[in-house]
């Protein structure tokens, strides 16, 4: 019986018409799998532009100020507006070099483990933005606070860099929602750490919330990997802008309740640019910085 079935299957698969059908189907499946794999790589796995490992090959000619942006996916920017790239485009011609040390999914503990790669860049300035993944992963507030202390103290001991702590970006666009209420404690820890340890505090969270529509009903926080993947398809395959994606999801400053639209990325870039000018890292550039 099995032999007869096998012979029938063999005849079906080896006729010219069916062979062509199977070949086309397999080719389409391989293309789909390859395309999906490439999309996952581009959206989740690829390195940011000018990561620490690449930068350590040497400063670009004419560089007078190196800033390392240290953080998670909001800094990595494969699924979020590239505020580090915006700064590079704006200030790079004036002698600034920006190193992107952001990695998707990282928490304060991950940043602490990666501190050596930041130190090795011998930066003049370091921005640190972390916290959303600590909240989402249930990292205890006390542990988060201790991690921040250690990150700052090690950077102060091993570099001469000016340091800025940035408040963590919102979790959804409802400031009164449960996710942002939980995040508020972590942002309070960020601000307290900055004041106590003598580093700058940049109110990124507050600035983004300030751009949200007053009185509007925000969708409930509903991030998922599936949503992020759909956004990656729209952004990388269909070239839909992050602002348009945010609007289609009923949002303004966030695309998927976590990652930044282009509008929100500009808010972060403006705050950091202004800080660079105020800190006197290159006084002659202040007119370009707008700060």
TrEMBL record:
Q: What are the SGNH hydrolase-type esterase domain coordinates in residue numbering?
A: 69-211
- Any Pfam family hit: Lipase_GDSL_2
Q: Which keywords does this chain's UniProt record carry? A: Membrane, Transmembrane, Transmembrane helix
Q: What are the protein's GO molecular function terms?
A: phosphatidylcholine lysophospholipase activity
Instruction: Tell me if Transmembrane helix is a UniProt keyword of this record.
Output: yes
**Entry's transmembrane regions:** 20-44
The record's InterPro entries line, in alphabetical order, gives: Ester_Hydrolysis_Enzymes, SGNH_hydro, SGNH_hydro_sf
**SUPFAM superfamilies named in the record:** SGNH hydrolase
PANTHER family assigned = SGNH HYDROLASE-TYPE ESTERASE DOMAIN-CONTAINING PROTEIN, THIOESTERASE 1/PROTEASE 1/LYSOPHOSPHOLIPASE L1
Q: Write the protein's name.
A: Lysophospholipase L1-like esterase
* Organism (species): Nonomuraea dietziae
């Amino acid at each position: 019986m099995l032999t007869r079935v096998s012979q029938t299957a063999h005849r079906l698969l080896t006729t010219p018409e069916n062979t062509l059908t199977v070949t086309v189907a397999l080719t389409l499946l391989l293309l789909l799998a390859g395309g999906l794999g490439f999309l996952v790589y581009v959206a989740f796995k690829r390195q940011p532009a000018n990561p620490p490992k690449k930068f350590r090959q040497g400063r670009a000619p004419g560089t007078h100020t190196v800033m390392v942006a240290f953080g998670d996916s909001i800094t990595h920017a494969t699924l979020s507006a590239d505020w580090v790239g915006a700064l590079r485009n704006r200030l790079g011609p004036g002698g600034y070099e920006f190193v992107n040390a952001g990695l998707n999914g990282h928490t304060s503990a991950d940043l602490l483990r990666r501190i050596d790669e930041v130190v090795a860049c011998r930066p003049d300035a370091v921005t640190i933005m972390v916290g959303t993944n600590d909240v989402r992963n249930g990292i205890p507030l006390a542990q988060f606070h201790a991690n921040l202390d250690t990150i700052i103290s090690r950077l102060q001991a091993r570099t001469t860099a000016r340091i800025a702590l940035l408040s963590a970006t919102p979790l959804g666009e409802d400031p009164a929602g449960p996710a942002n209420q939980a995040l508020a404690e972590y942002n309070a820890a960020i601000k307290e750490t900055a004041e106590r340890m003598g580093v700058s505090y940049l109110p990124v969270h507050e600035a983004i919330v300030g751009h949200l529509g007053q009185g509007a009903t925000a969708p409930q926080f509903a991030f998922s990997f599936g949503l992020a993947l759909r956004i990656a398809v729209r952004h990388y395959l269909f070239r839909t802008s992050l602002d348009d994606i945010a609007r289609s999801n009923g949002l303004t400053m966030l695309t998927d309740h976590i990652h930044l639209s282009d509008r929100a990325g500009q808010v972060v870039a403006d705050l950091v640019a202004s800080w660079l000018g105020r800190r006197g890292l290159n006084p002659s550039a202040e007119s370009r910085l707008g700060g």
